[in-house]
Design brief:
The chain has 12 helices and no strands. With 240 residues, it is mostly helical. The chain has one domain. α8 crosses α9. The longest helix is centred in the middle third of the chain and has 26 residues. The protein is globular, with a radius of gyration of 19 Å.
């Protein structure tokens, strides 16, 4: 499995596209957080990374499908999947290697953003940022990235067209992240079902962890979603 994980890492950074994707991610976050007036942290008057943690999921929603779209689609297209099947690896190990390889890239993209927390803490005159909420929010981002990664790999396992894999992955991530919250606001669900429908969405559990309180129900939810999509990917590999 480690061999597959290492291959994913090297493949992503073997081309200029990988570096451009990470630079764009960091550049967009930097512009929104420190340059654009409506979202600039410097204009808030208090030390908070709330705007970053509200913005980052939407950027990851497009970044992660970019990372995962080639995971299996390229294997099908170039014929290397046939070679992959000859290795002494089970479908579970192949899927696990693909998943952890892509997730490692996502974590690598998030690590430089720790400088935002350091910068805001240094600029704060009194108090500083809420470390509990900040740590919880970063944990939420990693779990969110893991969910989006599993969805992207599952989308890539259906097709050999990387563009289709990207669009399918991004659309599914959007539906699971924001779709249930939007659905809960429909008037037909205002009799008490709105809360339970919103609980089905990723955003509900991400916001819950971002408060700094790690609830086992949120962890079970994220683990369940990841498991479902990795299982779907494994089934697709087995069928091939």
């Amino acid at each position: 499995m480690w061999m597959i994980c290492k291959k994913e890492w090297q493949q992503f950074f073997s081309s200029l596209t990988g570096y451009i994707a990470l630079v764009v991610f960091l550049l967009l976050n930097g512009l929104f957080l420190f340059v654009f007036p409506d979202t600039s942290i410097l204009d808030f008057g208090y030390a908070s990374l709330g705007s970053f943690f509200n913005l980052a999921p939407w950027i990851l929603l497009f970044l992660i499908p970019t990372i995962t779209m080639r995971s299996l689609a390229d294997e099908y297209k170039t014929g290397t999947f046939e070679l992959l099947k000859t290795l002494p690896l089970t479908p579970v190990q192949i899927v696990g290697g693909k998943f952890f390889g892509a997730l490692l890239i996502v974590v690598t993209a998030l690590l430089p953003t720790l400088m935002y927390a350091v910068s805001v803490q240094a600029l704060s005159v009194t108090g500083g940022i809420d470390m509990g909420a900040t740590m919880g929010s970063y944990l939420g981002l990693v779990l969110l990235g893991a969910v989006f990664t599993s969805i992207g790999i599952a989308a890539s396992s259906y097709t050999q067209n990387t563009v289709v894999a990207f669009m399918a992955g991004a659309f599914t991530c959007f539906l699971l992240y924001n779709g249930f919250e939007a659905m809960s606001k429909l008037p037909v669900f205002h009799a008490g079902l709105d809360y339970y429908i919103e609980m089905l969405g990723i955003d509900f559990h991400y916001r819950s962890i971002s408060r700094g309180v790690v609830d086992s129900r949120d962890l079970v939810y994220f683990a369940g979603i990841i498991g479902i999509f990795l299982f779907i990917t494994q089934r697709n590999l087995t069928k091939r």
